[in-house]
Design brief:
By secondary structure, the chain is α/β, with parallel strands linked by helices. It has one domain: Purple Acid Phosphatase, chain A, domain 2 (4-Layer Sandwich). The protein is 43% helix and 14% strand. The strands form 2 sheets. The chain has a 6-stranded mixed β-sheet with strand order 4-5-6-7-9-8, with no helix packed on it. A 5-stranded mixed β-sheet has the order 3-2-1-10-11, with no helix packed on it. The protein is elongated. The structure holds 2-acetamido-2-deoxy-beta-D-glucopyranose (NAG) (2 copies).
């Protein structure tokens, strides 16, 4: 009788300790998940601010457009993408994007191409699935605009590009080449089609760009020529070019900053029409549009280049952790005359991984000490119990 009562009390004590240990383990696991998968995005993006754009001219404040630029999201496809990789990367991008929208409230978001990894060869069913996931990840309130330019992974490199792929892309993301808001003109260039070999798609895209150039010229110059008659006048402002391929540059040798290409890759010469646009196409864009700023993607690394001594181009790094440890996006405060840009880094993947490693370590320590404590007060109780049961 005494023995039974003693055993009962002892096992109650054991299970209480065991429950406390379990609770502790669960709390550590939950806290690290909550931090790494949710809170960290708020903590990091919270520090990003819209840059201040130049002082108002004679007290007259121009409207400022708040635009967010990102590039190369590469949503993985069904052929080469591993499901876990896909799940992880897409969750990270969804959280980053949604957190940025919530904290920063941009008016327009531009994605500079390579939204999908496998748009270049995906079946129509896989394409539909990719698009549905894209819409979920990059969902946004109706008053915010989302604009996407085509990249080589969306419609294929020049030799893979087909009317079918271009059309299905434009059905989802619109085929507008020109976008004006608050006095700012954006030209969205399908840079994959600037091969310059007169292919069907290429000639069509060039013709559209020439038409946009004409409209912009009409807004900038005295519209004396008959060409400018009719049609809506655009705001008088040099445009901002948005495209996937950067304009021609020999290499990334002159790029600097913490998210530029790694030093061992910087001097590798770029191939025209593959890494960057051809010299000819680049020159054409500069002549046609006389832009005040160019933003491009494709290289996955950051860079700032000055074309012709006056036109700056910003290479926007990839937004996916699959391509780099420190993804980012660009915040732009734009007026018709002026602009200011700043970069907002997302959480480092390294930080997330080390937090998880730390949590795993803590779990191991808690378990070991906990199990030790469970067994320690009556070292022989277990053995006695077991012997008892065995009989
Ligand atoms: C617009 O003006 C620029 C600069 O004068 C010129 O290079 C370009 O060809 C013009 N565009 C059109 C369509 O005429
Ligand atoms: C780097 O800058 C220097 C000086 O402006 C220039 O001469 C050189 O061509 C640039 N290199 C590349 C690869 O752009």
């Amino acid at each position: 009788m005494v023995l039974i009562r003693w055993l009962g009390r002892h096992s109650f004590c054991l299970s209480r300790r065991r429950r406390a240990l379990l609770l502790k383990l669960m709390a550590v696991t939950l806290a690290s998940l909550l931090f790494c998968e949710f809170l960290i995005y708020y903590l990091v993006i919270f520090w990003c601010r819209w840059p201040e754009v130049g002082a108002p001219a004679r007290g007259k404040r121009e409207p400022v457009l708040k635009a967010l630029f990102l590039a190369d999201t590469h949503l993985l496809g069904e052929i080469t993408g591993h499901w876990l990789d896909k799940l992880r990367r897409e969750w990270q991008m969804e959280r980053s994007f949604q957190t940025a929208l919530w904290l920063l409230q941009p008016e327009v978001v531009f994605i500079l191409g390579d939204v999908f990894d496998e748009g270049k060869w995906s079946s129509s069913k896989a394409w539909e699935e990719d698009v549905a996931r894209f819409r979920k990840m990059f969902r946004h309130p109706p008053h915010m605009q989302l604009k996407v330019v085509a990249g080589n992974h969306d419609i294929g490199f020049h030799y893979q590009m087909s009317m079918y792929r271009v059309r299905r892309f434009e059905e989802v993301f619109s085929s507008d080449r020109l976008f004006s808001w608050k006095g700012v003109n954006f030209v969205m260039v399908n840079s994959v089609a600037l091969e310059g070999d007169g292919c069907g798609i290429c000639s069509q895209v060039e013709a559209e760009l020439v038409e946009v150039s004409r409209k912009l010229n009409c807004s900038r110059e005295e519209p004396d020529s008959s060409q400018c008659a009719g049609g809506q006048r655009l705001p008088v402002s040099a445009p901002i070019l948005l495209q996937h391929y950067p304009l021609y540059r020999a290499s990334d040798a002159n790029c600097s900053g913490e998210d530029a290409a790694p030093p061992e890759e910087r001097n590798i010469p770029f191939q025209e029409k593959y890494d960057v646009l051809s010299r000819e196409a680049s020159q054409k864009l500069l002549w046609w549009f006389r832009p005040r700023l160019i933003l491009s993607g494709h290289t996955h690394s950051a860079c700032e280049v000055l074309h012709g001594g006056s036109v700056p181009e910003i290479s926007v790094p990839s937004f996916s952790w699959r391509n780099r440890n420190n993804p980012s996006f660009i915040l732009g405060s734009l007026t018709s005359r002026d602009y200011a840009l700043s970069k907002c880094f997302l959480p480092l993947e390294g930080t997330v991984l080390s937090t998880y490693c730390g949590a795993a370590g803590l779990l191991v320590v808690l378990t070991l000490t906990g199990v030790g404590r469970l067994a320690s007060p009556f070292p022989s109780a277990w053995t006695r119990l077991r012997v008892h049961r065995a009989r």
